[in-house]
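In response to the reviewer comment on reproducibility (Comment 2.3), we provide here a single inverse folding case reported in full, input and output, so that an independent group could reproduce the run without further information from us. The structure tokens appear first.
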């Protein structure tokens, strides 16, 4: 595990500016999330004001969004953060990766209603998509999917060498980093970099992983293996 991490904090005025530039479409997205939550659990909160807090959280990662390139949002749920990126960076090609068919149907409907031609929905597990599009993405995102090491295993076969993963994490990040230790090169990643930020009094962070070597051919493993048999043990 690295001895120190460079500190990164997105200025609050930058975050507000990102949201303000795309205010109408983001408000439309919030309305859709609140409405479609009646059909499937897309977000924890169901009230628009609470959903907007999740949008603001996702917007923090826009500091790392390039203007062009292919991005995969692993376990996107209701499209967070992938749809936020698609709304704010229209030249990016965003793949929303979700394995629950009901959610996939809603994601496709929301993408049409939001007029997002740069979004596609992949209704599959990450292991299956990795076999079709091995190392073809520039950036991998994930928010609220699971243990840092597990989601890194999902991301590595999808991410090209030279690409980056950004994972949203909360208070358990230190424990998860200790679990993996200095073994990130097993998946072709350099050591993680932690980008802390504060949002509404909560101490959160993005974990950045650079893909510096090809993913070993043993990955992806069969579905379910990543969570049951951690690669770092």
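Designed residues, in position order:
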């Amino acid at each position: 595990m690295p001895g120190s991490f460079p500190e990164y904090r997105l200025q609050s005025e930058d975050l507000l500016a990102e949201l303000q530039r795309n205010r109408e479409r983001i408000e439309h997205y919030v309305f859709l999330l609140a409405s479609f939550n009646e059909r499937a659990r897309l977000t924890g909160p169901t009230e628009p004001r609470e959903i907007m807090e999740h949008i603001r959280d996702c917007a923090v990662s826009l500091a790392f969004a390039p203007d062009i390139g292919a991005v995969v949002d692993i376990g996107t749920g209701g499209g967070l953060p992938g749809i936020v990126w698609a709304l704010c960076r229209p030249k990016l090609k965003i793949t929303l990766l979700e394995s629950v068919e009901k959610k996939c149907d809603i994601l496709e409907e929301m993408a049409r209603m939001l007029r997002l031609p740069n979004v596609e929905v992949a209704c599959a597990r990450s292991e299956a998509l990795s076999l079709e599009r091995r190392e073809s993405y520039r950036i991998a995102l994930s928010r609220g999917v699971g243990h840092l090491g597990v989601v890194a295993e999902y991301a590595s076969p999808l991410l090209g060498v030279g690409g980056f993963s950004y994972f949203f994490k909360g208070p358990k990040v230190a424990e998860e980093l200790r679990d993996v230790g200095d073994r990130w090169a097993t998946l072709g990643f350099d050591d993680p970099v932690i980008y802390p930020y504060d949002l509404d009094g909560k101490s959160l962070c993005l974990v950045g992983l650079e893909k510096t070597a090809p993913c070993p051919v043993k990955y992806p493993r069969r579905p379910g293996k990543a969570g049951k048999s951690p690669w770092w043990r």
